[in-house]
């Protein structure tokens, strides 16, 4: 997948699926001893036409008593989180060119120009931040908005409904996925974005279609293509986080009351996704359609 950054800035989606009569999305039900845990694939940015949501999302929410998100949404909106992210993104010494070399810098400059971004403003930032700026610009240009993402949508609904909300990961650990990223992986994140530069304009339409159509296989194949090329980066951004989240999901399955767990859709699909990892642990997992 072209954009696999943290949930705070993760990006996704556009037009291909907008005319579907019966969108299904990406939602699964895991059977607990006395309850169900619903796993729902989140799109952290969406266009207005994504609403109303595919019915399985509404059914899963209505059937649940608790909402579980990747991170504390309120904490993510506080100035402290923004300031910590930006402080970690800036170089203490040198600039992007001096840290990534002339060739990668030249490619970055060309793609940034095509996206309408100023390299003068990006030069002081680390590769992972520059990569996410390029990716987010492409989705914003396609009409996708972070304020329409599923995390914020369901967080607001849960608060209005006085429904308990909990994070899978503390805010510091959530931000550290990128803020503490080794320099080699930071460089890889920029490289993978530049490798897909020709696809940036089409990526929102493709990924939105996977999500809206409920095409788990298509999304998994898109992720696998990039994960094969950059395995250490994808371990850090996706698969290590999946393993860290599994104990919390297991605990939810052992308590009373249904829960809706909403995570980036890329965390659910493929052989190392949460759906297959829970099946491998002996749980019954079925698709909600």
UniProtKB/TrEMBL annotation:
Keywords in alphabetical order: Signal
Asked if the keyword Signal belongs to this entry, the reply reads yes
Please identify the protein, giving its name as recorded: Conjugative transfer protein GumN
* Protein source organism: Salinisphaera orenii MK-B5
Report if keyword Transmembrane is assigned: no
So which residues are the signal peptide here? Answer: 1-21
């Amino acid at each position: 997948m072209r954009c696999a950054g943290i949930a705070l800035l993760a990006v996704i989606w556009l037009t291909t699926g907008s005319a579907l009569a019966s969108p299904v999305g990406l939602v699964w039900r895991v059977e607990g001893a006395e309850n169900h845990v619903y796993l729902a694939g989140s799109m952290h940015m969406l266009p207005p036409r994504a609403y109303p949501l595919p019915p399985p999302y509404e059914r899963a929410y209505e059937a649940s008593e608790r909402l579980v998100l990747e991170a504390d949404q309120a904490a993510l909106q506080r100035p402290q989180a923004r300031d910590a992210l930006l402080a970690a993104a800036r170089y203490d010494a040198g600039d992007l060119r001096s840290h990534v070399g002339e060739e990668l810098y030249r490619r970055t400059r060309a793609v940034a120009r095509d996206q309408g971004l100023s390299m003068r403003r990006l030069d002081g930032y680390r590769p992972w931040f520059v990569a996410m700026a390029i990716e987010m610009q492409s989705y914003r240009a396609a009409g996708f908005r972070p304020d329409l993402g599923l995390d914020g949508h369901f967080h607001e609904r849960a608060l209005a409904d006085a429904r308990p909300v909990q994070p899978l990961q503390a805010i510091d650990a959530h931000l550290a996925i990128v803020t503490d990223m080794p320099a080699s992986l930071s460089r890889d994140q920029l490289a993978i974005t530049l490798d897909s530069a020709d696809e940036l304009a089409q990526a929102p339409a493709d990924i939105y279609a996977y999500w809206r159509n409920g095409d788990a296989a298509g999304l998994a194949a898109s992720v696998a293509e990039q994960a094969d090329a950059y395995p250490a980066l994808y371990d850090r951004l996706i698969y290590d986080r999946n393993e860290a989240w599994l104990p919390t999901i297991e605990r939810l399955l052992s308590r009373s009351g249904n829960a809706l767990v909403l995570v980036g859709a890329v965390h659910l699909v493929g052989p190392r996704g949460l759906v297959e990892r829970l099946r491998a642990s002996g749980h019954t997992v079925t698709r909600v359609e």
